[in-house]
Amino acid sequence: MIKQKGILFVLSGPSGVGKGTVRKALFEKDTALQYSISMTTRPIRPGEQEGVDYFYRSKDTFEAMIGDNQLLEHAEYVGNYYGTPRDYVEKTLDEGKDVFLEIEVQGALQVKANFPEGVFIFLSPPSLEELKNRIINRGTETEALVMNRLKAAKDEIELMDAYDYVVVNDKVDHAVEKVQAIVKSEHCKRERVASAYKKLLEVSQS
Ligand SMILES: Nc1nc2c(ncn2[C@@H]2O[C@H](COP(=O)(O)OP(=O)(O)O)[C@@H](O)[C@H]2O)c(=O)[nH]1
Ligand SMILES: Nc1ncnc2c1ncn2[C@@H]1O[C@H](COP(=O)(O)OP(=O)(O)O)[C@@H](O)[C@H]1O
């Protein structure tokens, strides 16, 4: 019997909406999802670790990887590059394990164009006012960068339609539960399709 490939889940949405927070809370629960660690040219922040939060690389190294087609997608976001190493994703899906990406909107749309069978989840803020508060409270950005990120967020929210699911991040626990429900439902859907396919083959062979 052919081994089934894993499912690619993509969590995306504007900066500051809580993607990182929701993803970390999701991975603290018992989950079989495999997180794909991204590569970035942005400086490491206090408390972050190489190979845990990101692979931190120079602009030259990043551009060489783009040239070698080693990234599944990449985007320039507020002055820095971010990208998903292709090898890890392909190898893990081939092993039958689900992969989870947490990326910004331009990158998610590139993945969708190349990998339409993925499951695309848009994490939405309860309001733009709350999004602004979250970015300011996080305290990682200067005032000019906060405004940049908010401007980007308004454009990104307009792209919500391209996603399979929208999850509002009102409370972290609620958002995590909704993402878990999506993962479960996608597995059920796949099992139903696989079992219907198996039955059809049995009928045609009898
Ligand atoms: N396209 C793309 N975006 C990414 C990737 N990794 C992280 N991002 C996104 O890049 C944006 C900026 O990330 P970061 O600098 O860590 O800031 P923060 O998420 O706002 O704390 C966020 O929206 C991330 O989700 C990636 O591999 N590809
Ligand atoms: N549901 C929520 N309610 C209140 N604050 C939140 C919620 N989710 C995330 N936050 C806070 O918002 C800020 C941005 O979250 P973060 O996970 O860094 O966003 P992103 O990864 O989308 O840029 C952080 O300070 C985080 O603690």
Taking the sheet with the most strands, its summary is: 5 strands, parallel
| Portion in helices | 40-55%
Mean pLDDT: 93
Number of strands: 9
Instruction: Characterize the overall form.
Output: globular
Name the CATH class of the domain at 8-36 and 97-205.
Alpha Beta
Number of helices: 7
Overview of the molecule:
The structure is a single chain. The chain is α/β, with parallel strands linked by helices. The chain has a domain at 8-36 and 97-205: P-loop containing nucleotide triphosphate hydrolases (Rossmann fold, 3-Layer(aba) Sandwich). It has helices at 19-28, 59-67, 86-94, 105-114, 128-138, 143-157, 172-205; strands spanning 8-12, 34-35, 39-40, 55-56, 71-77, 80-85, 99-102, 119-124, 165-168. The strands form 2 sheets. A 5-stranded parallel beta sheet has the order 2-7-1-8-9, with helices on both faces. It has a 4-stranded mixed beta sheet with strand order 4-3-6-5. Helix 1 crosses helix 7 (172-205) and helix 5 runs antiparallel to helix 6 (143-157). The structure holds guanosine-5'-diphosphate and adenosine-5'-diphosphate (ADP). Residues 15-21, 134, 137-138, 169, 171-172 line the site of adenosine-5'-diphosphate. Adenosine-5'-diphosphate (ADP) is lined by residues 15-21, 134, 137-138, 169, 171-172. InterPro entries: GK/Ca_channel_bsu, Guanylate_kin-like_dom, Guanylate_kinase, Guanylate_kinase_CS, P-loop_NTPase. Essential for recycling GMP and indirectly, cGMP. It is an enzyme of class 2 (transferase). Its main location: cytoplasm.
